[in-house]
């Protein structure tokens, strides 16, 4: 079989076997340590965990907000203006 490179204009190159290297012998037994798992919880994760442990007061407030949204009374012109002002203030700081 005639194997050529990418261009047929080049002459054939001989194929050689890769060099086999052996690992050096170790002087003595090495202590094998098993891998250790570690867990690091971010500050955001800690905050979310704390938030999930809040009392029923927060759940009651969320229920009130959900009811107001469903009734169409949650978004008032005052709340929208406040949110818009806060957004504009945040954009000015950046």
Please give a handful of descriptors for the protein shown.
3 helices; 94 residues; elongated
Per-chain topology:
Layout: H1 43-52, H2 56-71, H3 77-93
Helix residue percentage: 40-55%
N- to C-terminal distance: 68 Å
Per DSSP, what share of the residues sits in E-state strands of 2 or more residues?
under 5%
Are there runs of 5+ residues with pLDDT below 50, and where?
none
Q: What's the count of strands?
A: 0
Rg from C-alpha positions? 34 Å
SS-based structural class?
A: mainly alpha
- Helix/strand order: HHH
Largest sheet: none
Query: What is the 3D form?
Result: elongated
Query: What's the rounded overall pLDDT mean?
Result: 80
Q: Give the count of helical stretches.
A: 3
Give a verbal description of the structure.
The chain is mostly helical. The chain has a domain at 58-94. It is 46% helix and 0% strand. The chain contains 3 helices and no strands. The longest helix is centred in the last third of the chain and has 17 residues, at 77-93. The mean pLDDT is 80.
